[in-house]
Amino acid sequence: MHSSVRREVAREWEDMQKELAEEAIKGKGLVDEGIIDFCKNWLKLTPAAYQERLLLDPARFIVARWARQTGKTTSISAISLHTALSSGSKRIVILAPSWRQSKRMLSRIERSIPKNRRSILTGRLHKTKLEFANGSSIEALPNNPETIRGETCDLIILDEAAFVRYDKELYDSTVYALTTTNGRFIAVSTPGSRDSLFYEMCKNNDLYAEFSRHHVSYRDALEPDGPLKEKMVESLKVQMKADPWRWQREMEAEFAEDEEAFFPLNLITKCVSYELKTYDDSIAITGQVPPLGNYYIGCDLGKKQDHSVIAVVEKKDGDVNLIHMKQFTLGTDYSHIMGYLVRLG
Ligand SMILES: Nc1ncnc2c1ncn2[C@@H]1O[C@H](COP(=O)(O)OP(=O)(O)OP(=O)(O)O)[C@@H](O)[C@H]1O
Ligand SMILES: [Mg+2]
Fold this sequence. Notes:
Elements: H1 3-25, H2 35-41, H3 49-55, E1 61-66, H4 72-86, E2 91-95, H5 99-112, E3 121-126, E4 129-132, E5 137-140, H6 145-148, E6 155-158, H7 167-178, E7 184-189, H8 197-203, E8 212-216, H9 230-239, H10 244-250, H11 265-271, H12 281-286, E9 295-300, E10 309-316, E11 319-327, H13 334-344
Parallel strand pairs: 1-7, 1-8, 2-5, 2-6, 6-7
Antiparallel strand pairs: 3-4, 4-5, 9-10, 10-11
Helix pairs in contact: 4-5
The structure holds adenosine-5'-triphosphate and magnesium ion (MG).
Adenosine-5'-triphosphate is lined by residues 45-48, 51, 66, 68-74, 190, 227.
């Protein structure tokens, strides 16, 4: 037989064997251990006691209100991966305030798979979906109710749930996607506004009584009980001294509205757009911004505690969009800021 034909036959044979092997594990579990051992053996992670409670919670609807840096994303990444691997043909969807954030979480999950176990991944690697040899998949979707409508899922994970725009619409379509599979929904976040679905899930006992609720303040997660370092907490305390409401939300994980704030938190959340493109410094001050436009410039001066900040907005078709923002380092001389304003103008 000609050597090129022999090579071709060998390649075909190899592909066939691979397909047969893949076919044999489709629909089956790729891990036997429970989630705690899975975290230890696969992810080299020893969950804190409060993380264990979440990882082992069998409820269909779960809401976790945890302080900053307590391991929210780590925990839900582990749940996603374990769900995908412990039985076959499971579909897991990850949602976050923006597609960028859900894709970032997916890439974290991908990187957490140990090098010697990467053969569990099949198909082409792409930034929005991980496919496994047992037919399971984990997909990062944009925050858009339309993309989930009509889909069926076994597990939906919502990270930073308190900061999702159009949260109620997203949740409605999400729940619909779980009905045929009797799937699960897990929302995690630090608290945001009280005018949010996340608040309702945490507090409304009439409408959301079915939710299993988890609350973790920074005190529960200080080393050695969790990943939070005392030193880091101390420096955050200093930074948030002037904003006790933020401290309560982010570190105590309690809902607290800033009563002195001019704009309520829910209005700010509604206005945040993750797709907005802004001009960076070089473009803004070299005059490449279109010269004709309805622009407004605002400046907030600060030097020791707060930064000086300049913002430029454009009013167009009834919308006001931020097109440039410059935050100066602490201690920047006011004459420098005036100079920047002159160049912008
Ligand atoms: N059980 C654990 N043991 C050791 N380190 C951990 C553990 N859980 C989380 N971490 C580490 O703590 C850090 C914060 O974790 P993670 O990003 O999951 O927190 P988060 O609550 O999602 O943070 P954020 O509030 O910024 O979204 C990461 O470096 C992560 O690797
Ligand atoms: Mg996180």
